[in-house]
Amino acid sequence: MAFGIVWMSCQAVMPAVLGRAIDRGVADKDQQQLLFWAGVMLLIGLLQAVTGIMRHRFAVTNWLTASYRIVQLTTRQSVRLGGSLPRKVSTGEVIAIGTTDLSHIGNVMDVTARFAGAIVSFLLVSAILLSTSVQLGLVVLIGVPLLLLLMGPLLKPLQSRSATERQMRSDLSNTGTDIVSGLRVLRGIGGEGVFLDRYRRESQATRTAAVNVAKLQSVLDALQVFLPGVFVVLVVWLGARSAVTGDISAGELVAFYGYSAFLMLPLRTATEFANKLIRGRVAASRVCRVLALEPDVVEPTSPASPPAPASELYDARSGLRVRPGLLTAVVSDQPDDSALLADRLGLCAAEQDDEVSLGGIPLTSLRHADIRERIMVSDTGAALFAGRLADRIDERGNGDVEKALFTASAEDILEGLPDGLDSVVTEKGRSFSGGQRQRLVLARALAADPEILVLVEPTSAVDAHTEARVAARLRAHRDGRTTVVTTVSPLLLDAVDEVAFMVDGRVVAVGTHAELLADVTAYRRVVVRDVEAVL
């Protein structure tokens, strides 16, 4: 802003110096005065050049800093919210922040320096004009604010239309994301045409909203040229009349014309600032809405000391007791109940209470970093990130990738890739089939080797032969470590140490798979779909 003020002030005083050079040098035929004022103009020009360069450099720096600081803050907030993020805000909303909102906020930072210079230079020119001609000075002091007021009625509708267009753009991004994510399913059921029509309708509605914004924007841009042009004509006309009557000299007339031409710059800068400020406020309100979100589970103010290794994990609400070092399966007549239990065990549920404890200490009393280090939940919605396959499987950088791939029965996937572990995974692993992605996600969880691993339906998308191999290898891989698997697959259940059977969210029976099959009719009905048990 300081450089902007000096830069534009140099432009503001240049017509006055030029008028002095004409009156005292050219009109009076004084070569010494002409050289003196020419030297002053040179110095002012050099100062203007230096400050203009520095203003531009800092403006660009501020633009980039503001824009990418928004990205940093949004990313940190996304990490802080974790699993709470998709429950509180849509994907398109977050994408729009990183594509359009950051640009609008950066534009405000860019124009602020020029706007500060415009305000100061306007006051400076007004003071110079008042000292020369009260009439012209008053015309400038009153006329410039009046021109800005004439454009004021356009600003509020522009803000409203911009906010509507921003929301529709976010919704359109959501639709596009949904289509891309579910493209494989859509092709399978022949639903591409339905979603294409839906996207086309939303796209056209968004285009219409953008055109409505552009209509007001075009009027505002036209007024930025037309109104200052009319003002320049008025000031020059008044100055010419004063020169004819002898109230001002020829040099002062040239200076007045220079002031009039110069005043177009602060006028346009002021309207540009108002326009960008409106768009920036709309964008900032969306960013602030995301930054104001709170995670479902917050960090404890006075975290407890983590329990000793190999501690028991217990959920009082369901009655599930996970003994350390065992492979435990959870079977439920309602799959959603077992999935919710898995989230609760890893402090990932939308509503978390003190009923889940590790070694007798509630999870809500422990630091989240300690919980994430010791307990990992891998559910069916887990996705593969883009990048080198070996890095995407071994996210922590210290796991046994080959052993994890073997346990997940994913060797065939590796053999089918031309570059093996150096192959690049596309976004969300879309180049792999559903069963392949599920096995790679399982391998990633196994490579992390947490103290307690919770797997939600880890083999639901693979064939029976592959599932049998995974079941046999999983027990050996996790030997001595605590593992919880939610499943109704007999192949997996036959390989676990202990099975907890849930009905209506409560554990009603605990035992081996064989024992529960023999003794619990409801369990047999859920697992093997025994028709006689139903009857």
TrEMBL record:
It comes from the Bacteria. Residues 1-279 form the ABC transmembrane type-1 domain. It is a multi-pass membrane protein. InterPro entries: ABC1_TM_dom, ABC1_TM_sf, ABC_transporter-like_ATP-bd, ABC_transporter-like_CS, P-loop_NTPase, Type_1_exporter. GO terms for molecular function: ABC-type oligopeptide transporter activity; ATP binding; ATP hydrolysis activity. GO terms for cellular component: plasma membrane. SUPFAM superfamilies: ABC transporter transmembrane region (SSF90123), P-loop containing nucleoside triphosphate hydrolases (SSF52540). Pfam families: ABC_membrane, ABC_tran. Keywords: ATP-binding, Membrane, Nucleotide-binding, Transmembrane, Transmembrane helix. This is ABC transporter ATP-binding protein. It comes from Nocardioides zhouii.
